[in-house]
Amino acid sequence: MLVLSRKTNESIIINGNITVSVLRVDNDNVRIGVEAPLEIPVMRKEIYEEIKSNNEQAAGSAKQRVKQLVNN
Amino acid sequence: MLTIENKSTEVAPQAEASAEISGLDLYFASGLLGFELNKDFELITDPELAPYQWLRGKDADQSFLVIPPGYVVEHYSIELADEDVALIGLENSEDAVVLNIATYHADETVTVNLKGPIVYNKSTQKARQVVPRNAAELSLAHPMGN
């Protein structure tokens, strides 16, 4: 993992189009600002993992099977 | 920020309107969470599946069972971030359609993800799976009653 030190109001830039800025630091709480193109979703990792895992469970390919279940 | 509200009474007549199978192409510029590379889907409305619909992946053999929230909970309100509104080109909340992904479990129960809904724009057919601003108060696995 790349590790960089930044102070309040300093940023890093990723891929020339994503800017991550440190807005405020209070003890162990860091406020971060992210500017990214619209098509790049930005969210807290815990919530991403939660929804991703739910999507993986939900993903299927057997519409006929679902139809049978729904009509049971 | 745009708030979209769904009430159960608002969706009921819509689903009964068509007796034939129909499809609507939807483009997910960011894919679904965990399925970022799958961008093209077809939303299939099949009367035999009602009130569920089938979101068929066109890039890969990955499809999802979805349901309008009005069939799941009495009142559902999500607050969309400006980025989500802009990505799907939403100019007013009337163009927005909300769907929730349903999971069929091995024990034949169904749960619905209210926390990460799909929102699409009827006019642009652009869609995104969003994390609403009020996600913390929404359930990831809401049980469907029988």
- Count up the helices of chain B: 2
- Cα-based radius of gyration of chain A, to the nearest Å: 20 Å
Uncertain segments of chain B of ≥5 residues (pLDDT<50)?
none
CATH H-level homologous superfamily name of chain B = BH3618-like
Tell me about the largest β-sheet of chain B. Answer: 7 strands, mixed, barrel
User: How large is the share of residues in beta strands of chain B?
Assistant: 35-45%
Q: How many domain modules of chain A?
A: 1
Uncertain regions of chain A: pLDDT < 50 for 5+ in a row? Answer: none
Number of DSSP E strands of chain B: 10
- Regarding quaternary structure, what we see is heterodimer
Q: Termini distance of chain A?
A: 50 Å
Helical content class of chain B: 10-25%
Amount of helix of chain A: 25-40%
Please provide a written account of the structure:
The complex is a heterodimer of chains A (72) and B (146). Chain A has 72 residues and is an alpha+beta fold. Chain A is built from two helices and three strands. In chain A, β2 and β3 form a beta hairpin. The mean pLDDT of chain A is 90. Chain B is globular. With 146 residues, chain B is mostly beta strands. In chain B, the strands form two sheets. In chain B, strands 2-3-4-5-7-8-9 form a seven-stranded mixed β-barrel. Chain B has a two-stranded antiparallel sheet with strand order 1-6. In chain B, β3 and β4 form a beta hairpin. The model of chain B has no long low-confidence stretch (mean pLDDT 90). At the A-B interface, α1 and α2 of A face β5, α2, β7 and β8 of B.
How would you summarize what this structure contains?
The complex is a heterodimer of chains A (72) and B (146). Chain A is of the alpha+beta class and 72 residues long.
